[in-house]
Amino acid sequence: MIKLRVPATSANMGAGFDTLGVAVGLYNRMMIEEIPEGLEVINKNTQSLIPQDTSNLIYRAMAELFDYVGYEQKGYRITQDSQIPMTRGLGSSSACIIGGMLAANIISGRQLSYQEIIHLAATMEGHPDNVGPALFGGFCVSLMDDDKTIIKSTKLKSHIKFAVIIPDFFVATKKSRGVLPSKIDFKDAVFNVGHASMFQAAMLTCDMKALEIGVKDKLHQQYRKSYVDGMEDIFEKTYHLGSHATYLSGSGPTILSILDGNYDEFKAGMEEYFKTNGLEWKCMILPIDNVGAVVSEI
User: Is the confidence at residue 168, as pLDDT, over 90?
Assistant: First the structure.
């Protein structure tokens, strides 16, 4: 039996569309074992519904790797206990893909390196900025270049925490990507290149003032805000409570704020804001996960 723990991830990170991502302390825990035949899917979290057949994403990721290395599939028992809310912009699909592929790689004889696995995972996901931190942890800069995926992961200092602000509704990634323009102005591209670069430098040096500037975006958030009622007001409130950078996590609708102190005060302030405005949102303060996916054989 293979036991796995894969972290939630937050991607796009303001100006870093499809490039910047970070792993946070919320997890999908899985146990996967090969059985003579069939497929058994056991969901330990009754708050989430996951497919029980071959459309299950963990199984599909396993099958993708098995096909790639030419391993003849048998039967599998997949037990999943995930804390990561689905379709909320916190990398729930990437956690499943990374977990499934890591397990399949062990089952099939460890034929692939992590570099090969991450490219296979990014190809299946369609972008690398969630699967990168899900596998390697930390703050990641990711890109896909022809037949390879390059991930550079950096460990962040533990005092940096993430306020994950989760609504009571979801937005499908496909739908959220559908509102993005097919072309952008050259000046907007230059704006995002500069700001994404500044964001990366600020994260690596813990320059909170530069972080607030670097997080600004002109590629995706302005188009996606129509799916998140009151997004701009929530952004404003987070900055009032001490956020150094607030952005739409992934394709949304979760909003994430980066903090370096006053964590309890921030959480209490946001909860009071939600209560006052009749919003069924919740706020969690999560640490950085500098480790990434953890795998053990039982």
Answer: no
